[in-house]
Write a structure and sequence with these properties.
It is a single chain. The protein is an alpha+beta fold and about 300 residues long. About 35% of the residues lie in helices and about 20% in strands. It contains ten helices and eleven strands. Helix 3 packs antiparallel against helix 5, helix 3 packs antiparallel against helix 9 and helix 5 runs antiparallel to helix 8. Bound molecules: ligand U8P. The ligand CCS(=O)(=O)N1CC(CC#N)(n2cc(-c3nc(Nc4ccc(C(=O)OC(C)(C)C)cc4)nc4[nH]ccc34)cn2)C1 binds next to strand 1, strand 2, strand 3 and strand 5.
């Protein structure tokens, strides 16, 4: 009998045992499962993303696109695709990924504030930029870069963990036009996204600046972009007005403030991610160089004014 060729990226639903909930969003959720084909309780832990409702059509094709995106990505700072699992005769598909034990930066940083110094925060920032620079080199725009979507493997490694809103710019366009998104992370969005629904690679740089702000505030909820921006907006109005008022303050030049104890050198990097004109914004390659310089021991004396 020929040796049964087993495709390691196909997971059999019968051996997938749910252990815990890891995260959830508007349409998707991520669960911790053990994949135990031998049934000896020693199978590997995996993270499984599925649609929340029995999402038909549009949602299912979103997850399909996310799966097709993730299988093409190979980078140290991007969470690894492991495979897919279909159930109900192939009608619904689940995305199987490597499980990162420490959770997202948003869960991790506030708990580890006292063990995480500036050098480590800048290392996380550097790794996010390296992952994003690679993503851009593959002609993808992430569109949802935020600390909540960055996962911690261990205290020295972080990875971009979710590609639910990632779009390919394959057809040699230099931007992606979004249809009206229902729940957009507006406080991570650049002006061009808020006003013309246009997403450039430079729009991801703006979101990285907000993510760097989150890093420097240790993802403390009290200083989250939502909280701080809403304080900056004139007369706190209902949701809809926020978008218009947000664009107004951004056009007027207001930006998130320098976080407490954040060195000016790091804050000026954030500001270079928040240039109004996408063409004037620093790019991920430039951010990598700047962060490596800030981190480089040799320059330590005159650069990291700790
Ligand atoms: C966008 C909607 S979404 O629903 O699709 N969704 C949310 C999303 C955001 C991102 N990224 N997400 C990914 C994971 C995730 N978590 C993990 N490990 C852990 C390990 C520990 C913990 C933990 O202790 O948590 C508490 C709350 C502190 C108890 C949490 C997660 N490993 C993973 N591998 C691949 C994905 C993945 C979780 N949430 C993507």
């Amino acid at each position: 009998v020929p040796i049964q060729e087993v495709d390691p990226t196909v997971f059999d639903i019968r051996f997938l045992r749910k252990i815990d909930d890891l995260g959830e969003g508007q349409f998707g959720k991520v669960e911790l499962c053990q994949y135990d084909p031998r049934g000896d309780g020693r199978g590997e832990l995996v993270a499984v993303k599925s649609l929340k409702s029995n999402g038909k059509g549009q949602l299912a094709c979103h997850l399909r696109r996310e799966i097709d995106t993730m299988r093409e990505l190979y980078h140290h700072n991007i969470v690894k695709y492991k495979g897919v699992c279909s159930e109900e005769g192939g009608r619904t598909t689940k995305l199987i990924m490597e499980y990162l034990p420490a959770g997202s930066l948003k869960d991790y940083l506030p708990k580890r504030k006292h063990q995480t110094d500036l050098k480590r925060l800048l290392n996380y920032a550097l790794q996010i930029c390296q992952g994003m620079d690679y993503l851009g080199s593959q002609r993808f725009i992430h569109r949802d870069l935020a600390a909540r979507n960055v996962l911690v493997e261990n205290e020295s490694t972080v990875k971009i963990g979710d590609f639910g809103l990632t779009k390919s710019m394959k057809e040699d366009k230099s931007y992606y036009t979004v249809k009206e998104e229902t729940f957009s992370p507006v406080f991570w969005y650049a002006p061009e996204c808020l006003m013309d629904c246009k997403f450039y690679p430079a729009s991801d740089v703006w979101s990285f600046g907000v993510t760097l702000y989150e890093l420097m505030t240790y993802c403390e909820p009290s200083s989250s972009p939502n909280t701080v921006y809403k304080e900056m907006l004139p007369n706190k109005t209902n949701g809809q007005m926020t978008l218009t008022r947000l664009v107004e303050v951004l056009i007027a030049g207001s930006r998130l403030p320098c976080p407490p104890r954040c060195p000016d050198t790091v804050y000026s990097l954030m500001r270079r991610c928040w240039e109004y004109d996408p063409a004037n914004r620093i790019q991920f390659k430039g951010l990598i160089t700047e962060l490596e310089t800030l981190l480089d021991e040799r320059h330590r004396g005159d650069r990291l004014a700790v």
